[in-house]
Amino acid sequence: MNLDPLYSQLTLKTGAKLALVVLDGVGDIATKAQGEVTPLEAAHTPNLDALVAAGCAQGRMIPVAPGITPGSGPGHLALFGYDPLEYEVGRGVIEALGLGLELKAGDVAARANFCTLDKDGLVTDRRAGRIATDICEELCAKMAAKIKKVGDVEVIIKAGKEHRFVVLFRGKGLEGPITSTDPNREGLGLLTAKPVNAKSAAQKKTAKAIAEFYKLALPILASHPKANGFLMRGIAHQPEIPLFEERYLLKPAALAVYPMYKGLSQLVGMTKIEGPQTIAEQFQRYQQEYANYDFFFIHFKYTDKYGEDGNFEAKKKAVEEFDAALPILLEKKPDVLAITGDHSTPCAIKGHSWHPQPVLLHSAYSGSDKLERFTETGANLGSLGIFEAKYLIRLMQANAKMFDKFGA
Predict the structure, then answer these.
(1) Minimal CA–CA distance to 71: which of 184, 157, 225, 229?
(2) What is the pLDDT of residue 239?
(3) Distance between CA atoms of residues 81 and 97, nearest Å
(4) For residue 356, what is the DSSP state?
(5) What does the DSSP 8-state code read for residue 50?
(6) Could you report the per-residue pLDDT of 305-342, keeping only the tens digit for each?
(7) What Å distances lie between residue 34 and 30, 43, 372, 378, CA to CA?
(8) DSSP for residue 372
């Protein structure tokens, strides 16, 4: 049942300030190898502990549906209150927007990663050793200088952070979605991009353009010791999505460092605030912009990054880095504060997982679960219980007293 019309009918504009702080992939699982604790449980977090002691509600969230492992796109769209099963967005579109590319009607965008290929064309490192951003920029410039078009399709290449970049295909008769070329694990060769709809002439043309691009691009990269190949996924065109401000009566802003998360926020109409690079700088900028917006989305990447690396100690330290900066945010505490992840990224799995992520909700009306810390174990006992992530924004609105009473 779609409850959005009911929520819209009940929504009041109150002037409240709301902040959604996302520790990407913060959720984890306790294993024997990790001493039966998660990075969140092992971390020294005095500031989070003090926030919990001040009164918070906790729980766990299902990002999409039980057992389904989400990508970052669905995970964040759910946090923004959009049902990820209704609004499917290709990762390439999100990344392209985040890098500042303006998408036109008919454009198809792909999110790409440099990778390492052996002499037989098998993928030995899906992230090319996480090459430095300046190397990524150099390689993208090489390809862009030599590949302007494939057939009648214009090709636009834009470097991102580390091993990531975007390829935009522009021309008549193009359409997504197209299947990924990423085999999703090492030891396999690149996959062939194919139309999702085998009967679509536009998708066939797009898949052909991608195949031609690979033929031209791989020889350019062949001599590089690490980034001699690339993977493409999230190949799609931009869908229509209702704007955040119209949907929630909140003027939103996004403080994110990585292009993908800037793109996700831009997709729903948030203002991208550029400049800050560290979580402390993001919180400082939040203070400066406090009067200008009603809703702040603040993104912290490194819990996810180290979870994907399987690096327990680094993920724990990333949580501690976040905690050390938290007092800057709390100097100008929002009326409603939610701290959570977009999904779980367990170190034992070295990737995203289906495990519900923990969530903390603090406001004058959240009540206190009388827990001592913000952890997965504590969240299991919290009053919020286990709920779908798409309802978090509605709980935040309720805690901001933004809903009129339903019924007599």
Answers:
(1) 184
(2) 74
(3) 20
(4) P
(5) H
(6) 999 999 999 999 999 999 999 999 999 999 999 999 99
(7) 7, 12, 21, 18
(8) S
Q: How far is CA 141 from CA 146, 156, 215, 221, 227, in A?
A: 9, 10, 17, 11, 14
Q: What's the Cα-to-Cα distance from 326 to each of 244, 305, 321, 323, 330, rounded to whole Å? A: 26, 20, 9, 5, 6
CA distance 20 to 111: 26
Topology of the domain comprising 15-88+240-399: Alkaline Phosphatase, subunit A (3.40.720)
> What's the rounded Cα separation, in Å, for the pair 345 and 392?
20
Domain ranges within the chain, ordered by starting residue: 15-88+240-399, 94-236
The pLDDT tens digits of the residues spanning 52-102 come to 999 999 999 999 999 999 988 899 999 999 999 988 777 888 888 878 888
CB neighbour burial string for 207-234, b if at least 16 within 10 angstroms, e if fewer: bebbebbbeebbeebeebebbbbbbbbb
Phi, psi of 264 (to 5 degrees): -60, -45
Q: Which amino acid is at 306?
A: Y
- The mean pLDDT of 355-377, rounded to a whole number, is 97
Nearest to 323 by CA among 43, 18, 99, 35: 43
- The label of the residue with tokens 């009607």 reads 105
DSSP 122: B
Whether the model clears a pTM of 0.85, i.e. scores above it, the answer is no
Q: Which is it for the CA torsion 198, 202, 206, 208, positive or negative?
A: positive
- The answer to whether the beta carbons of residues 276 and 284 sit under 8 Å apart is yes
